[in-house]
Write a structure and sequence with these properties.
The complex is a heterodimer of chains A (about 220) and B (about 250).
Chain A: H1 2-22, H2 24-43, H3 51-80, H4 83-89, H5 94-124, H6 131-156, H7 161-188, H8 196-221
Helix pairs in contact in A: 1-5, 2-3, 2-5, 3-5, 3-6, 3-7, 5-6, 5-8, 6-7, 6-8, 7-8
Chain B: E1 2-3, H1 6-12, E2 24-35, E3 38-49, E4 53-57, H2 64-71, E5 79-84, E6 87-88, H3 93-98, E7 100-103, H4 115-125, H5 131-141, H6 157-169, E8 175-179, H7 187-202, E9 206-210, H8 214-220, E10 223-228, E11 231-237, H9 243-251
Parallel strand pairs in B: 1-11, 4-9, 4-10, 7-8, 8-9
Antiparallel strand pairs in B: 2-3, 2-5, 5-6, 10-11
């Protein structure tokens, strides 16, 4: 266990250090997220009852597409230089490699969210600093990164990986998309009493797909 | 098939190492690999011993890289049994990986990390003891001691290849698999490679190497294997082979 934690840490250290130097992932993801939020802000009528549902839709469209952009790039960087094979040569459990990549991707998406959410709050004039919203963001991002990391590895070995990733991801990610948007709308409209089922769905989804991805990753990375 | 009995081969192919009873490092029996309907490797039977430098020759598409990838646990055989240090590849791949170092076509390095950071990363992944000392040691060994803090992106192809060699020997593997390791290496780089191979086999390690440079293969190997259309058609001591004959055989497709 201690060894696995050490290996996951070094994988995250490698991804973070590379990102700090290149800004390959964060730059693209952040610009995309902000651009989406700004576009939606000008496109929608934000007066009255429309504000909350429009806002939650804009927020999750921004995060889902920005996340997908980052996931595809993160795995492509490993595949293109053959460094994924270098990782697979190490005497490390494949599940541990998956967890390392998952945590790295989760951190990148979270960082984009941390910076984009205040911008969203300012543009949509919505109070987003609520514990329940942070929980939805956390659960949604875990589910997104859990499924996305696995499918990005799968898509990276195909010829048209940029197209394949969303095609593979969205059907599987649909419960997360629905639950996060519905839960966010409830929070932004102050109906937090009805939040329970959506949070349960997100929690169960995260656990299930983390477990599935951990187990099947070995099969996915094989030729 | 020009093959010697295994025991005789083991005796004749040593490099003067004080290793009276060579250990079977790699044992391959009835190995086949099929991609879709194409047989890439057909019934390969092979034993490699400790202290041996073996050169694997073959034309493009003969199956050399596929064989190396299977031994490196990067690819699964369609059928057959492979053992490395007595460990079955399919049953204990993670344990096998501790014993294997690989230099492949791609360097398996991270461009935006420095040479030192790359080796630090792999040392941690392989649980290399005394990591700082070992990292510095292998960087000196490949002549990159002065470039420890430089990013790999700034390295020439030959320097990247040297660093890839450093990565491959970092965890002191007993089996070195080298897929055209001479690619991109200058004269100094070739000396470094030869020195490392010499030291590796002298300390009881085994090296299996592919190359398209026949002369380099015959001079640096103790034993030569030839793969033709996925079949092992020659297994002989390097000193018994004539370069021109082998060249003619490789040119014939």
């Amino acid at each position: 266990m201690k060894r696995a934690v050490g290996q996951i840490s070094i994988l995250i250290w490698k991804d973070l250090l590379t990102e700090v130097r290149t800004k390959d992932l964060f730059g693209g993801m952040f610009v995309f997220a902000v651009l989406t939020i700004v576009t939606f802000n000008f496109a929608f009528d934000l007066t009255g009852v429309n504000r909350a549902p429009s806002g939650s839709g804009a927020l999750w469209v921004a995060f889902n597409f920005a996340g997908m952009l980052g996931l595809g790039r993160s795995i492509a960087l490993e595949r293109d230089r053959g460094s994924l094979d270098g990782l697979l040569l190490c005497p490390v459990d494949r599940g541990t490699i998956y967890l390392g990549k998952f945590v790295g991707n989760f951190l990148f998406i979270t960082l984009v969210e941390v910076i984009s959410v205040p911008i969203f709050a300012a543009l949509f004039n919505i109070n987003v600093f609520q514990l329940s919203l942070l929980l939805v963001l956390l659960l949604g991002t875990v589910g997104f990164a859990a499924v996305g990391t696995l499918l990005a590895v799968m898509a990276a070995s195909t010829r048209s990986r940029e197209v394949m990733l969303p095609v593979l991801m969205f059907p599987i990610l649909l419960p997360v998309v629905i639950a996060t948007v519905r839960a966010t709308t409830l929070i932004l409209t102050g109906q937090t009493a009805d939040l329970g089922p959506w949070l349960n769905l997100l929690g169960a989804y995260d656990l299930l797909f983390l477990l599935i991805a951990y187990v099947v990753f070995e099969r996915v990375v094989e030729e | 098939m020009n093959a010697l009995p295994a025991e005789q081969r083991a005796e004749t192919s040593m490099t003067g190492v004080d290793s009276p009873s060579p250990v079977v490092r790699v044992s391959v029996s009835n190995l086949t690999k099929r991609f879709d309907r194409r047989n890439v490797l057909r019934s390969i039977n092979l034993e490699l011993y400790s202290g041996e430098r073996v050169v694997l020759l073959g034309s493009n598409g003969a199956g050399k890289t596929t064989l190396l990838r299977i031994l490196a646990t990067l690819s699964r055989p369609t059928s057959g049994v492979v053992r490395i240090n007595g460990l079955a590849l399919q049953q204990s791949p993670q344990e096998v990986r501790r014993h294997v170092g690989v230099v492949a076509h791609q360097p398996y390095l991270y461009d935006d990390l420095t040479a030192g950071e790359n080796l630090h990363f792999f040392a941690r992944m392989y649980d290399v003891p005394d990591e700082l000392h070992r990292t510095a040691e292998v960087l000196e060994l490949v002549g990159l001691g002065a470039r420890t803090k430089d990013r790999v992106r700034t390295f020439s192809r030959g320097m990247q290849q040297r660093l890839a060699i450093a990565r491959a020997i970092l965890h002191r593997p007993q089996l070195l698999l080298l897929d055209e390791p001479d690619t991109g290496l200058d004269r100094e780089g070739m000396h470094v490679l030869e020195r490392i191979l010499e030291h590796h086999v002298a300390s009881g390690g085994t090296a299996l190497m592919t190359t398209h440079d026949l002369r380099f293969g015959l001079t640096s190997g103790d034993r030569v294997l030839l793969l033709e259309f996925g079949r092992l058609t020659l297994d002989a001591p390097a000193r018994e082979l004539v370069e021109e004959e082998l060249d003619a055989r490789l040119s014939r497709r």
